[in-house]
Design goal:
With about 200 residues, the protein is mainly alpha-helical. The protein is about 85% helix and about 0% strand. The longest helix is centred in the first third of the chain and has 46 residues.
Length: about 200
């Protein structure tokens, strides 16, 4: 009888462990993906440091720094949301998530404006005057890396929005679910922390 009484709890714990393991494997695959991108950028910088630095100088350092601040603050808010949920503070959890979403959306808006400026300068692949080979390599690598990252930001915002929406209903997300989404968002932010100095400070 005791085994039967504790079976639901054991099943719930196994489900949580499975969720954590699945998320860990997914994050590992994402880490390998962005690791390959970052290694490619470092290899390109090592291959032609002068050309890399010259083209990097054409990027807007204040814009990149502002986006770094936006994502780091957003990551902090997601961590605060998880802490609030652990204390059963639903409204504070929802508020932190909504603010994190707003900052993530602001990151995308700033990035879109930056892309627009780079399009006007002819840095975007397929537009504007042809660039020298070293500048073209940097520009292509820049748009691949930041475009892939922006796609992950969009996915992360969708996940955060889903968590915030579920807090309004009768099926709020559990700590494990919100924790997994938070880990994904922290990974997205961490990737940008690596991309920012490589792309914007190599001048």
């Amino acid at each position: 009888m005791n085994l039967h009484r504790h079976e639901p709890f054991a099943t719930l714990e196994r489900q949580r462990e499975a969720d954590r393991l699945g998320m860990a494997l997914f994050l590992a695959s994402e880490t390998m993906l962005f690791g390959a991108v970052i290694l490619g950028l470092l290899a390109l910088r090592s291959f032609d440091p002068a050309g890399f630095a010259q083209t990097s100088a054409r990027l807007s350092l204040p814009t990149g720094a502002a986006n770094t601040a936006l994502l780091l603050t957003s990551s902090l808010l997601v961590a605060l949301a998880a802490a609030a949920q652990a204390r059963d503070e639903v409204r504070r959890t929802a508020l932190c998530l909504l603010l994190a979403i707003l900052l993530g959306a602001a990151f995308l808006a700033v990035k879109a404006l930056e892309y627009r400026s780079e399009y006007a300068e002819g840095l975007m692949p397929g537009f504007g005057a042809p660039l020298p080979r070293d500048a073209r390599l940097f520009a292509d690598a820049y748009f691949i890396a930041t475009g892939l990252h922006a796609l992950h930001v969009i996915v992360g915002l969708g996940l955060l929005g889903t968590m915030a929406w579920r807090l309004r209903g009768d099926d709020p997300p559990g700590e494990t679910t919100l924790g997994n989404v938070g880990l994904y968002w922290h990974l997205v932010d961490a990737v940008w922390v690596f991309l920012f100095p490589i792309l914007y400070l190599s001048r």
